[in-house]
Amino acid sequence: MSEHTKQPHILISNDDGYLAPGLLALVNAIRPLGKITVIAPEQNHSGASNSLTLSRPLSIHRVAGGERDGFLFINGTPTDCVHIAMTGFLDEKPDLVVSGINQGENMGEDTLYSGTVAAAIEGVMFGVPGIAFSQIDKGWNQIEDAAKAAHDIVVQLLASKPSHTEGAATLLNVNIPNRSYADLSRWRVTRLGNRHHSQPVVEQKSPRGDPIYWIGAAGFAKDSTAGTDFHAIDQGCISITPMQLDLTHHARLAAMSANGWDRG
């Protein structure tokens, strides 16, 4: 990088918490690419989606010493972390928001629940490109290899000069197989597949005999045809899905307007 080229400022967050091995591996892998700021949740917030904490104040703490020296953590959600960074904590908006590496896949409908994806989305809502990284299998097996692959994808995105236009920034959801770095050279640009319904709720008894419930596991893949994230992973490839925030069903909007839903 030329000494006259401004290094990008990269904000990194996650949903597994600031102590997660996936976050540390990601930070170490992309640290050479620019100025790094880490703001992550204090505790695991998997499944938090895009939730903001509005019922209590939030506190920011800095890690002093050790391999996470300088990391900031917040007693809130992944979205809280990025939102606070964008709305006053940082002196200027970063050039890129990177989230992960999550412990476990985020494919198909998972993206609607994922705190990992939500952190990247929050950056996009402020006009900053975002990438969410997840590793397919839990347990952090070969996380350093996944982080090296994440580094390469960040380099590719930065080289493509992603859009910084308000409301139209690039948003990528990336899923990485638990494989050696040598086996992670195949990338596929994909669409989201979808799953069967979630597994049944798990009912248990509390120590007092009252019924308690655990949310069941995610459903198995339903649409894993060629071109989907599920199919790419089945083929041993990294899945890279470009996403957008517009939830409007445009074809249905036009059909409803044509069928008399507009009145007055």
TrEMBL record:
Its main location: cytoplasm. It comes from the Bacteria. Binds 1 divalent metal cation per subunit. Its cofactor is a divalent metal cation; Mg(2+). GO terms for molecular function: 3'-nucleotidase activity; 5'-nucleotidase activity; exopolyphosphatase activity; metal ion binding; nucleotide binding. It is found in: Cytoplasm. Coiled coil: none annotated. Its EC number is 3.1.3.5. Keywords: Cytoplasm, Hydrolase, Metal-binding, Nucleotide-binding. A divalent metal cation binds at residues 15-16, 46, 102. GO terms for cellular component: cytoplasm. Residues 10-198 form the Survival protein SurE-like phosphatase/nucleotidase domain. The keyword Zinc does not apply. It is an enzyme of class 3 (hydrolase). It catalyses: a ribonucleoside 5'-phosphate + H2O = a ribonucleoside + phosphate. Belongs to the SurE nucleotidase family. Nucleotidase that shows phosphatase activity on nucleoside 5'-monophosphates. NCBIfam families: PRK00346.1-3, PRK00346.1-4, surE. This is 5'-nucleotidase SurE. The gene is surE.
